[in-house]
C-alpha cells in the first residue's frame, strides 16, 4: 500500500437516510440522450454500430452504480435479534468490498470497509451491515461522508454501545486522471461511543482488522 492518511470526521450530521428522488427525475430516454451527447462531445459517432446500444448500456450501468438511492438503510437494520445469551463483545465485519463513485468526477472509488459495533442487547443479521455499506456506497460520494453515514446509521438505528467504521479505498480520479498518483489509498475512520471514548476498545478493533498501520490518534 502507498501513502495513507487517516482522517477523522466527526462533524457530519446523521444522513438524510434516504435520498428523496428528485420530483423532476428525468426519464430513461432523457438519460440515454445525455449519453449520446457525451459521445458526440467526445468526438465519436453515436450512430455507428459499436456505439448504437451504448447509451442504453450506460444507463443500465448507472442503475447498478447508483442503486443506493432507492435503498433505505434504516429499513435494512429494522430486524434485530435479542436472544444473544447476553453477548456483549465486539462484532466485526471486515474486508467488505466497497465500490462507489466519486461525486466530483463520477469515477470509481474501490476499496474495502470494516464495520464493528458493540451490542447493547440487540444484534443484527451480519449481512445487513454489508447492505448498509452498499446502500450508501452506491451513490455519488466522498469517502468521508460515506464513512460517517454508515457509522451514524448503525448508531442511530441499533443504538449499540459504540460503532466503528474504517474505509480504505483508491480513487480513480487520482489514478487515471488529474494528479495520476498510483498506489495511494485514502483511509477514513469514524468512531462512536466506546470506540471513541475507550482507547482499549479502539485498539482491539484495530487489531482485529489488522490495523497496526491505521493507528488512530488517542
Ligand atoms: N476529501 C475528498 N476529496 C476527494 C474525494 N474524492 C475525490 N476528491 C478530491 O476532490 C477534489 C476536487 O477538486 P477540484 O479542484 O474541484 O477538481 P479537479 O480540478 O478535477 O482536481 P484534480 O483532481 O486535482 O485535478 C480533488 O482534489 C479530488 O482528489 C473524497 O472522497 N474525499
Ligand atoms: Zn474524483
Structure commentary:
The protein is an alpha/beta fold and 218 residues long. It has 2 domains: 6-16 and 79-212, GTP Cyclohydrolase I, domain 2 (2-Layer Sandwich); 28-65, no CATH class. The chain has helices spanning 28-42, 54-65, 73-76, 126-137, 143-158, 172-175, 194-197, 199-208, and strands at 6-8, 80-81, 91-102, 108-118, 123-124, 140-141, 162-171, 186-193. Helix 1 (28-42) crosses helix 2 and helix 4 runs antiparallel to helix 5. It is elongated, with a radius of gyration of 20 Å. The two termini are 24 Å apart. The model is unreliable at 1-16 and 214-218 (pLDDT under 50). Bound molecules: guanosine-5'-triphosphate and zinc ion. Zinc ion binds at residues 102, 104-105, 107, 171, 173. Toroid-shaped homodecamer, composed of two pentamers of five dimers. Homopolymer.
| Dominant shape | elongated
CATH architecture of the largest domain: 2-Layer Sandwich
**How confident is the prediction overall: mean pLDDT?**
89
Largest sheet: 6 strands, mixed
Ions and ligands: guanosine-5'-triphosphate, zinc ion
Low-pLDDT segments, ≥5 res: 1-16, 214-218
Strand order of the largest sheet: 1-8-7-4-3-6
Distance N terminus to C terminus? Answer: 24 Å
Structural class: alpha/beta
Q: State the helix count.
A: 8
Radius of gyration (CA) equals 20 Å
User: What percent of the residues sit in helical stretches (DSSP H or I)?
Assistant: 25-40%
CATH superfamily of the largest domain: GTP cyclohydrolase I, C-terminal domain/NADPH-dependent 7-cyano-7-deazaguanine reductase, N-terminal domain
> What order do the helices and strands follow?
EHHHEEEEHEHEHEHH
Amino acid at each position: 500500500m502507498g501513502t495513507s492518511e487517516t482522517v477523522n470526521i466527526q462533524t457530519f450530521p446523521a444522513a438524510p437516510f434516504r435520498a428523496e428522488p428528485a420530483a423532476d427525475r428525468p426519464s430513461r430516454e432523457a438519460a440515454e440522450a445525455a449519453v449520446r451527447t457525451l459521445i458526440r462531445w467526445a468526438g465519436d459517432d453515436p450512430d455507428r454500430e459499436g456505439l448504437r446500444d451504448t447509451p442504453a448500456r450506460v444507463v443500465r450501468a448507472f442503475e447498478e452504480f447508483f442503486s443506493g438511492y432507492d435503498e433505505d438503510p434504516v429499513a435494512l437494520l429494522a430486524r434485530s435479534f435479542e436472544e444473544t445469551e447476553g453477548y456483549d463483545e465486539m462484532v466485526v465485519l471486515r474486508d467488505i468490498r466497497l465500490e462507489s463513485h466519486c461525486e466530483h468526477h463520477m469515477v470509481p472509488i474501490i476499496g474495502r470497509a470494516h464495520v464493528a459495533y458493540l451490542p447493547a442487547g440487540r444484534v443484527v443479521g451480519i449481512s445487513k451491515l454489508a447492505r448498509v455499506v452498499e446502500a450508501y456506497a452506491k451513490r455519488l460520494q466522498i469517502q468521508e461522508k460515506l464513512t460517517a453515514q454508515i457509522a451514524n446509521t448503525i448508531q442511530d438505528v441499533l443504538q449499540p454501545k459504540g460503532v466503528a467504521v474504517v474505509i480504505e479505498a483508491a480513487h480513480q480520479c487520482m489514478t487515471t486522471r488529474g494528479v495520476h498518483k498510483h498506489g495511494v489509498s485514502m483511509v477514513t475512520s469514524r468512531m462512536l461511543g466506546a470506540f471513541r471514548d475507550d482507547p482499549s476498545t479502539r485498539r482491539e478493533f484495530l487489531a482485529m482488522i489488522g490495523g497496526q498501520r491505521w493507528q488512530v490518534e488517542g
